[in-house]
Design a protein that fits this description.
The complex is a heterodimer. By secondary structure, chain A is of the alpha/beta class. Chain A contains 19 helices and 21 strands. In chain A, strand 20 and strand 21 form a beta hairpin. In chain B, the strands form two sheets. A 13-stranded mixed beta sheet of chain B has the order 5-1-6-8-9-10-11-12-13-14-17-16-15. A four-stranded mixed beta sheet of chain B has the order 4-3-2-7. In chain B, strand 15 and strand 16 form a beta hairpin. Classes of the chains: A alpha/beta, B mainly beta. At the A-B interface, helix 4, helix 10 and helix 13 of A face loops of B.
Amino acid sequence: MTLVKNVTCPICGTLCDDLEVEVEENSIVDVRNACAIGEAKFLNFTDPKHRNLKPLVRKGGELTEVSLDEAVERSAQILAHAQYPILYGWSCTSCQAIRVGIELAEEVGGVIDNTSTVCHGPSILSIQSVGIPTCTLGQVRHRADLVVYWASDPYSAHPRHIERYTSFSDGRFQESEWEHYVTRLRGVLGKKRLSRASARISMREVSIPPIADPKLPPEFETEKRKLIVVDVRKTRSAEIADFFIQVEPNRDFELLQALRLLVKDEELEVDKVAGVPVDLLEEFADILISCNFGIFFFGVGLTMSSGKHRNIDAAIALTKDLNYRTKFAIMPMRGHFNVAGANIVSTWQTGYPFAVDFSHGYPRYNPGETSAVDILQRDESDASLIIASDPVSNFPRNAAQNLVKNPMITIDPVVSPTTMMADVVIPSAFVGIEVEGTAYRMDCVPLPMKKIVEPPKICLPDEEILRRILLQVRQIRQTGGKA
Amino acid sequence: MIVKLHLKKEIHVPVDAESISPDVFAGKLVEEIAELPLWKGNRKVPLKDVFGVEGISGKVTNELVIHIDGNLSKVQRIGSGMTDGEIRIAGDVGMHLGVEMKGGKITVEGNVGSWLGSSMKGGTIEVNKDAGDYIGAPYRGSTEGMRGGTITIHGNAGTEAGRYMKKGLIRIDGDVDQFVGIHLKKGAILVRGNADGRAGAFMTGGKIIICGHLKSLLPTFTIDSMKSKAKVEEEIIKEPFYLFIGDLAEHGSGKLYLAKNKNKHLETHEKLLQ
């Protein structure tokens, strides 16, 4: 039995790099330090029910097993003859594979887009128009004395984010607050149990306590590290926070703009903004100003609700305004483990972070026009290559319909609705478990992904599969389309 | 001098038709026009592959009229950078119509895609049905908005109409989506229908007049006064308006006129005037 240390977790943008994995005869038997999501992946990724283990090509309406060479050849034929192909996915693979993908997109004159188009794409548009005052997670861990999670629920989606980088982490200049939070959490859970039990005994309905905190708790006067959550509902993260502000759905923009005014010491003419009383907002603005180092972490609740990139414009502008008074930073809570890497590789290769259109031979960029969902909704594409993602489950219905009606190639280690609807399925190896590579954390710090076990023989790395398709496409082009 | 183009058959992949412009057509024979390059997806094809061409071309741009027939909803960039002449489109048309236009006239009978008259500097665009998002707005990352000319939409319009506008006029007869006049610096936007909200966000100057209902006013606007009329160029709209100033978060002094009769939810602001 061997113990592999310092393994980077291939799940979310937090990219925890302190995992320890026990390996016995090319199989993982135990994982330490990982969250529940990470552990589940390491222990179950070989499950044959969910794994693609055969190259498949659709013949006569049925997916039929073929040789890997035939699947690659068919993929190259589809891409070389397409007039406007989409190459989509990329966020769950390595930077090395993304680099080859961009080369392939240029060769076939297609559109290469990554999953940030349906998550933090609006954040990127906003960063491009107003800039971003940000920092690394290390700085947050050691220095931040005020952490605000806005429209993001790290407790459920990035389970070790709070523990590794914010309130529960033991920084050089900031102490961990975990004991305090655990006590409070026990109190909250105890209260819930008590109210449920008493309701059962007395046969009456459970009275719902007020969700939003009506006023600031007394501990805000102390010097300790503080955690605030702003969200539309009381999430698990909100329950452990020092303070929770409930905003009306789709009204974050108004709240952010109002805070900007208050931070500038100006007055509001209304009593309530987005369901939050102005008195409370004034206190919130005071907390923001009076910290030594504050950080906003914002999630998809802000980027994908009404207003989209304008919400982020307002959030970044608020951070900018706060920097006149104190030190403040802002960071998007990236989802997939290498979605930041997909943006970075795309930027250093083409100049643009996502939705890059090579149809004219040079990179063009205009999300709304060249983004995968928009192209599919207008039904403009005639073929697609989907790698390491599942757009059939996630795209709007008519976009998914238009995607599957044209030839579709999928490269994926797992079976998904997208691979089931595909015309070519190429099985690949898991990056970070069966293949090494590089991934970028949400603060754009590159981290190495380790190879822990050998992949099944038929499962090649994404990079190798893409190189083979690229080679075939070049051969078809050189012979004038008759390979 | 009319050059008539008609779409030969329905197209699937987008067509980039930057070369359909009076400036490019002027001084060319019809046979030469038929050979002009277009991008159809990732293939460069001659114009005659997509359009049938007939008529007589002129030598001078201002005498030239281009008439286009068919469903052009996937044809983009028609009239890009045109300086004079006229384009008449009988049906729907795709994105980027009349981008960076400097003069001349474009008329559309049907609907138009997004980025209509993007960063235009002069000329007139008239659309009989609806328009998409980003009317007159610059491309991603640019702050060079509309700098002149007039855009008239007889139907509804999408989000962010007139973003970063510096000069000129946008008239929308129907309803408008969110963020009308975002980052407005100067110039005027007139909306005769209702607005979805967040009108004038980040605006620093200019004028937005909304004759219908505004779903919600941003908290960063302050009431200035009541007006009995609003004026856009030569047109005077005689009805009571609330005049708001903003966006205060940007230290802006833009004017937002909201019709009093359609916006009862703003009555609470009236007491601040006393």
